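Thread: quick sanity check before group meeting

JM: Hey all, I'm pulling together slides for Thursday and realized we never actually wrote out the predicted structure for the chain we discussed last week. Dropping the sequence here so it's in one place. If anyone has concerns about the input, flag it before I start.
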Amino acid sequence: AKLQKLDGELKERVVEAAAGGGMVKVKVNGGEGVVGIKIEKDVINPDDKGMLEDLVLAAVNEGIKKAKKLRETELAKITGMMMPGLM
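JM (edit): ok, ran it. Output follows.
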């Protein structure tokens, strides 16, 4: 029951990650779902589409990494131990 409650609570908590010096920002919830992406207009250049794609990818991956860390930290509070890779 505690784990189900934690799952629900984590989906409400959001971490933010950035790439390109903050030009691309991604918000990821504790359930590892991307809930928002913000791209500054200065980085939008049709001639450099690949760079923008790389920045979005980097920000999303960092956001997921932060969400996993949040989940592990909160899970450790319930179980009393760190369980990397459990979820």
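AS: nice. The mean pLDDT is 88. The longest strand covers residues 14-19.
JM: adding both to the slides.
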